[in-house]
Each structure stands twice: as structure tokens, then as C-alpha cells.
Prior knowledge:
Layout: H1 6-9, H2 11-21, H3 25-32, H4 40-60, H5 72-79, H6 86-106, H7 132-139, H8 145-154, H9 167-191, H10 194-197, E1 206-208, E2 211-217, E3 226-231, E4 237-242, H11 246-276, H12 278-304, E5 310-312, E6 317-322, E7 335-339, E8 345-349, H13 356-371, E9 383-385, E10 389-393, H14 406-420, E11 425-429, H15 438-455, E12 458-462, H16 466-474, E13 478-486, E14 491-498, H17 506-512, H18 517-525, H19 529-613, H20 618-637, H21 643-647, E15 664-667, E16 672-680, E17 685-690, E18 693-698, E19 702-704, H22 715-727, E20 731-733, H23 739-756, E21 760-764, H24 771-782, E22 786-791, E23 801-806
Parallel strand pairs: 5-9, 8-12, 8-13, 10-11, 11-12, 20-21
Antiparallel strand pairs: 1-2, 2-4, 3-4, 6-7, 13-14, 15-16, 15-19, 16-17, 17-18, 21-23, 22-23
Amino acid sequence: MDKKYYRVLEIDKILGMLKDKASSSLGVNIIENLNPFSDYNDVKHALQETTEAQSILIKRGHVPIQGIHDIINQAKRAEIGATLDPKSLIMIADTMRTTRILSNILSGDIKVDNFGNGANSNDEGSYDNKYPIVNSLANSLYIHRDIEDAILNAVVSEIEISDNASSELRSIRRRIVQKNQSIRSKLNGIISSATYQKYLQDAIISVRGDRFVVPVKAEYRSMVSGIIHDQSSSGATLFIEPMSIVEMNNDLRQLKLSENEEIERILSELSSMVGEVSRELISNQEILAKIDFIFAKGKLSIAMKGIEPKLNEEKKFKIVKGRHPLLDKKSVVANTVELGYDYSTLLITGPNTGGKTVTIKMIGLFALMTQCGLHIPADYGSSMCVYDNIFADIGDDQSIEQNLSTFSSHMTRIVNILENTTEDSLVIFDELGAGTDPEEGAALAIAILEQIRSVGASCIATTHYSELKKYALAKKDVENAAVEFDMESLSPTYRLLIGVPGKSNAFEISKKLGLSEFTIEEAKKYLTSEDIELEEVLQGVEKNRLKIEEELKIAEQSREEAERLKSELFGKLEKFEKSKAKAMENARSEAFSIIRQAKETTDNLIKELRKIEHERASKEKDRRIDEIKKEISQSMGSLQPSVESMVVPKFSSSEIKNLKPGEDVNIITLRQEGTVISSDDKKKEAVVQVGVMKMTLPYKSLKKISKKEKSTVTKATRKVIKSKSGNIKREVDLRGMNLEEAIYEVEKYLDDATMAGHDEVTIIHGVGTGVLKKGITELLKKNPHVKSMRKGEYGEGGMGVTIVTIK
């Protein structure tokens, strides 16, 4: 691509913003040499890099890239055997540490804590290879934890080596401290001595050239034997090293030389370690630069609220609510624009300062940003393509030196564009044909557009010429667009309207600004009839558009209200379902607790019963059984539902208003028929007899039925039924009987149970050898009263009982 067209689209300003997001000079270097890609796969890969970085930054909030240095020169010097200074070693160690942390964070296998230590991949926070490009780069990094630790353990700062660097260095420094203390102690004895005090200028210890001295008055030079190292500016004071500490100073000097030699040895050893991995460090530099660049793109995307546009290979784009990234985020107007779908050429018209130039710059800038691998500040649904060249003729490059007018400078660029345009190019013109005679300019503009269309390139142009509006209306592959202008406030709205040719609004604006009606009418006379008709058509179109927009706005508000109500309804429904599920869970939990408690109580009572069986006293046995029955009844009483809760239906369509004794009724929830014995219409209650039972029931649990036919059952039969129904239990115990006795007892019991109206009974036969159970089962299969039978379940007696359903 030709870089001379970048400046007018202001991609350099975007790249400047991108450089501000880089964390190192390595990333900045890549940005400075960044050029838009022309290959589809390269653009797709670059966009994916940005998307991965954006996603990681959103999830983590921060990726620690700071601490990367350009250490290529230091690595190469170490490789050829040079000794590096402490500053260079610290730069290398910092870079190694950042490399290790980035590798751990971004590799997809490990996450790290705040200290850069590794953690298991199963821990929360690992990326599980969701970011293949970034993961691949991170996995390619070389880690040198041993060298990093060795440098940081030895080098404290740019000018200081740690005592921990070696045991020899620690020993030398300890001896230096001891020698210093000895020298000071000796000198303190001299300066505090009464003999020497009158010879000294001050009772202090000084250092000259790494040797300890005392300040002696010049006139007493001969009184203090020693070596003169310095004198004051006035010459009144001499700094003398007393002979008594000369040897001690020599020893101290020797120790410091040994210290420097040991430091040099340590630095040489560390430099050698760096030199051994220099190639790996240089490889890391390239990867770290790429990572810094990728995350700079991710940071810029977040700052601009950008999205990855869907990339296509069809030379078309659709920008959904695009916002120019160099304008104020709070005031910028978002516009939707497309090209290449129904038309390949778009002509934008409208008044000056209406936003035409900003719009076409945004389109060109978005194309360049996409092909640089940057996200664009637009809404999801946006789609971009890849152009081989993006040409732009925007602004006035009038040159005094070349003696070029505005028109000439435009035409120079246009000639170059026409010579290099291909079917895969995007061409952008601002005020095409301006700067010369309007008629000739319009004709020339149409010819230029036709040439670009013949090549098959995509084109966007702004213009004021009415001829170009007519041209767009006449050509199938060309579309009009306009920037909206508010005539009430005489200000642009900066909204782009596709499919509508714009008006210059010169007469309306002049009228609002105070130009007389007479002058405006006179001006209209000079317009051709075609121009007047076109303006009238455009005015009508504008009125209809505003009306449709208002109706669409109302429809959109209605739709949003419907969506809101729908959302509220679904929210309430979801809340209800959650409450229902929670209530069911609580009920299950409570029921389980009750059952468990009842089982424990029952188990205890069974143990008590078995204990009673071994007791001899029958009376005591019966008394305990009665007590146990009473305990069971009391424990069950709290769980038993009320009669009203059982017989009153939850939903009742109608309620009986009055009842009379003798009327037949149906108990709705029990599905039983009965006869009214007495009733109370005020209390809405009635005494109803069902078989041998009498119940007081509310009217709302009853339903009137027609008179039943009189039963032909004799008095004697009623007496037998009454007797049976009152005495026959719902179970028979066969334990202790032989098979013959048990068969007789079961046959008799089934007759009585049928007469008593029992629907289900329990036959207790025990487990034992299984003979009794088998014989009784064969009997039940043949008995005419038996509808079905089954084994007892847990809590009913299990294998020791058979549950029989009576016909």
C-alpha cells in the first residue's frame, strides 16, 4: 500500500495511541514499522491476536508486561565473553522474571500468584488453551529461573553487589569492617590523647584517598610523624596519616582490592551464565516484543470499546454504528454505512460542516485499522474486507513551490489513483470535481467515477453537484447518501442517511440568517426548471423520511415496551419456578426428616414389643401394648392432616346454599355418597352418615345427588355387616400356625374383610422356612375375593407380609 495516502486518513494518530499502550521499547518498535496487510489470512490472524488479548485483559484486568528490556546487545556481548556490569545484569534478570511470569500466565497450563509462582492447571484461573495464538507464543518462551535467581541474589542495585553473592565476598567484607573498626579505635586514641590534642586542628577522623588521616596544624608538622596526603585550601591544615596506622591502612587497602577482584569474578561468572543462553534470550526478545504489541492492541480495543469485525473475502463492508475514534466519545455520532452489497459506489451530499468528510475518513480509517489487525469502534454485526490498496483524495494539498492550484493538486493525486486502482481497491474522494467550473467539474467527476466503476473498484465520494445526485439516481450500481441538517437550529446532526440525496439548503440557511425574501426569490429565478424540480422532489422525500422515522420511533418504543414486559413476565415466571422448586425441596427434606424420626420411634417400639413377648405376665403385656398404641397415636397425631383439609376441595365452582335431612349427597374429595342426618344453613354444616360413620362436614365439601333406590338388604344382614365392619381388622397374623390352620384362617378372614368393605388388607405370615408363605400365595391366587397381591415394602413388614387388594 502507498503510505502517502495514510496521512489524510489519520492512521498515524491511531498508531500513536497504540504506541502509548505498549509497555516496552520492543513493542513500540513493532508499531513504528507496522504496515496494513493485504493478505486475507494475515489480516484474520492479526485480528484474532487482538481479540485474544482483549479477552484476557477483560478477564484478568491486567497482564504484567512491565519489566521487559531490550537486552540483545548485552546478550551478544556476554556470548563473546565480555563481563557485564551490574546494571546490565539487573536488566537481564528483570526480563527473565517477566518472561517467566508471562509464560506461566499465558501458556494455558499454569496460573501464577502475585509472586510469579506456579500453580496447578486444575486451579481456577487457568486458560485451558482458549487463546491459541497467545498460548503458542507463551509456550515458545525459554525460562531461566536458575540464572534469574543467581543474578538477583548477587546484584542488589546498579552499583552494589550483595554479600550473598559468595562466601568469599562475605568473608572479605567482614574483615574490612573489622579492620575499619581497628583503625578508628587506634585513631580515636590518638585524637583523644592530651599529647596530640594541641597539634590537631580538629579532633576528627578524615579519609583521603581511601586512607584514614587526622587534621594537623601546619606549624606542628614535625611533631606528628606520618605521611601527608592532603592540605586545606588555606594551607593551615595538613591531613596526615600517622605512622602507627600506615600498615593497618595498607591491610585495609589490600582487602578492598581483594573485594574488587571477587566482585569482578562474580560478575564474570554471571556474565558467562548469560552468554550460554544468549541465543535463547534473543529468541525471547522477539516473542516478548510480539506479546507486548498484541496486548497493546488489546488495550487500545478496550479503550475505544472496539470489536473484531467479521472478515469477508467479497470486497464489501458494513459498519454498524461506527464511531470515529479521534472524536470525543461523549459527543460523537454513530453512523451505519455499507458498500459492496447492493452498490459499489456511494455518493454523499449535503451542506458544508455536515459531517461528510468525517464519515468518509472514518470508512477509510476503519479499513486501514482492520488491515493493521486493530479492532474498530463499532457495534457487533460489523463486517470488513481486505483491499489491496486504499486511496484517498481528501483536503487541499496546494503547493506554492510546484505552482499548483487547489484543482491541480487534486487532479495530480486523482491521476495517480486512476493509474493504480484495481478491482480490489477502495477509492475515497472528498469534493470530487471541486475547484473548477461547476459544469465542467461535474462532468469530469462523473467520468472519473465511471472509470473507477469500469475497473470494478469500490468508491465513496462527497459532492455538492446536483448532476452527481442525478447520476446516482440513474445508475444501478451507484447509491445516494446525505448528511442530515436540522433546519430549526441551523446545525448539522451528523447522521448519515443512505438512499437519500442531500440538499445544500443554501436558500433556507440564508433566509434563517436574515437574507431578504426578495433576494432569495430572485436567486431562485436563475435556477433551471430541472434544478427546481429536483429540489422539490428532495424536499418531499425529506418530509416523508422524517414522518417515517417518527413512526418507526413510535414502533420501536412499543416493541421495547413489549420486550420489557415480556422480560418481566419471564423473570417472574423464573422466580416462581425457583420458589416452587425450593418449596418442593424443603417439603422433601421435611418429609424425609419425619419419616426418619418415625422409623426410629417404630424401631424402638418394636424392640419394646419383642421384649414384652418374653414377659410372663399377660396383664402387664396387654397394659404395655395399650401404652405403646397410645404413644403411636400421639406421635402420629401431629402429622395427621385435619378433616377439613382432607374433605374441603381446593377449588369449588359452587357451594350448596341449603340442605334438608334425608337428602343424598356426594362428599367431593372422598368420592363417597352419604345421607344428610341434620343440617345448619347458618353455619353451612351438615351431619352426614356414610355407612356406619357420621361426619360433620361443611357445605362446600358436598354435592347434591339424585335419590338413590331403596336397598333391599334385610335387617339381619345389616346387623351382620355392622358387626363385621366394626370388628374386622385390616390384618391377620398367621405366625405360629401350620399351613392347614393358616389356610382356614385366611379364607374365613377374606370373607369377613370383603363383607366389612375393606379394600386392602395385610396377611402376616413371617419369613421362616418359606413353606407357609408359599402355601398362602397359592391360596390367594385362587381366592375369588382377591383382586391382586404384592410383597410388603419397607415399613410395611417387608418379606414377612403379603398385601392383598380386595375386589
